[in-house]
Amino acid sequence: MVETSTILHQPPQLLEHRMAISHVVLLAALMQVQAPESPAQRNTRMEWWRDARFGMFIHWGAYAVPAGTYHGERIRGIGEWIMSRAHIPILDYEKYVHRFNPTRFDADEWVRIAQEAGMKYIIITSKHHDGFAIFDSKVSSYDIMDATPYQRDAIKALSEAAHRAGLRFGVYYSIMDWHHTDAQGPNYPDYNSRTWSNPNFGRYVDAYMKPQIKELLTQYPSIDVLWFDGEWIADWTDERGRDLYNYVRAIRPSLIVNNRVGHSRQGLSGLNKEGHVDLGDFGTPEQQVPPEGLPGVDWETCMTMNDTWGFKSYDDDWKDTRTLLRTLIDVASKGGNFLLNVGPTAEGVIPAPIVWRLREMGDWMKTNGEAIYGTAVSPYGMPLWGRYTVKRGRVYAHVFDWPKNGRLELTGVNEQPLRAYLLADGKPLPIERDSGLAVRLPTVPPSTIASVVVLQVGGGSVGTGGSGGANPHNLHQPPPTSTILP
After folding, report:
1. Hey, is 94 helix, strand or coil?
2. Over 50: is that where the pLDDT of 16 sits?
């Protein structure tokens, strides 16, 4: 028996009227699409994103209410998928929506946590696969304003808080919808089928999905990124993805859109089978870092701190701060961005283990952020002791394993540095050239996680490109000249 929602039931006349309006809007939007942007125009649009390098991903919605448990049973897998994994009927899942009341949600506090961690942008789930929207949607009553006791717009609050703090802001939106009768809802209990098709899916796209996305882009002027997901369903195609990409860019030309707007992504690698981005502006590796990076491609690794995106009350398998920071460095050295996830509780609280780790990451970033922000892909490979990042005229050696003999061999660096110093204190370091380029280090490293040695190589030829054509900024004047040994 197919279970459907009473919340989204609408008269056919209303649906037809909305579809007619949506077609007019679509036609107007497509007429506004400008000529293909030049490489210079694309670089300008992507510049802030490439410079940012580090962002916060937030998975938050009604799935935080069961918190990984259904009828007293712990459900395997990621928390935000509990509706699918536990085969929860739509009407039963709606009860979690009706209980979603995050009275402890403080948008300014969430932004402060991100900012103190050194994050430069925030992406939050506006609507996940369960179909529940945490923004004020006039298209549907299945939203935080109409279906919950909270009745406040979380996207509005967070976007405004991010804007006040100078952070960029974006929203995740799921193409797949387990709740809607014209999408995956009727296929209960197999909400996630890759083969089942809904003959009314086009109506869902035109009368529901596009109007909701238009709401996001017109109601919240600070949205800089649209992060799509759930594109693997049978009804979604590259043709529909291309149409959607043009639609959203017509509404907001400065918008940055991920490649999951299309249909060709292969698994968690985040690219198509040829290793390219067919649609959208950047690739999306998930829970992994490409071993060699993705040369010539803008990309962003998204990753959890434990084993779930949405909150699960019993998932304590936390990555330590060392792992998280070294992953950030690894990603930056390969020319990518690192989107690190947090899963707040149903009350609106970011769990303490997440806050602790982000605070520790922020402590490191306060000293060493210069070696992350605005850097380009390293041309020097991956030394055994750590990673390199580069910025105009400077090479940053991130030393994970401090050499016991005090000599750091600068493997792969062909330029002759003018000076070398520790980023932590600015103290000059002796440069050695007798048996390969190296610097002489003090006995004790500034950081047990990653200490940064800066090489000024001059000329500005290093770090001027990067995989996505980033344009790194010049730095402050360096400390005093190092002693150069013969």
Report:
1. helix
2. no
Are 388 and 397 contacting, i.e. CB atoms less than 8 angstroms apart?
A: yes
Evaluate whether 156 touches 220 at the Cβ level (below 8 Å). Answer: yes
**H-type alpha helices, 77-232:** 82-85, 90-99, 107-116, 154-165, 201-204, 210-219
| Token duo for residue 112 | 């402060």
pLDDT tens digit sequence for 338-385: 999 999 999 999 999 999 999 999 999 999 999 999 999 999 999 999
pTM of the model: 0.89
With contact defined as beta carbons under 8 Å apart, do 85 and 76 qualify? yes
Check: CB of residue 300 under 8 Å from CB of residue 258.
yes
- End-to-end Cα distance, the chain: 82
Is domain 376-486 annotated with CATH 2.60.40.1180? yes
Distance CA 292, CA 94 (A): 44
Per-residue burial over 52-74, b = 16 or more CB atoms within 10 Å of its CB, e = otherwise: bbbbbbbbbbbbbbbbbbbeeee
Q: At residue 231, does pLDDT exceed 90?
A: yes
Domain boundary assignment for the chain: 12-371, 376-486
CATH 3.40.50.2300, domain 12-371, yes or no:
no
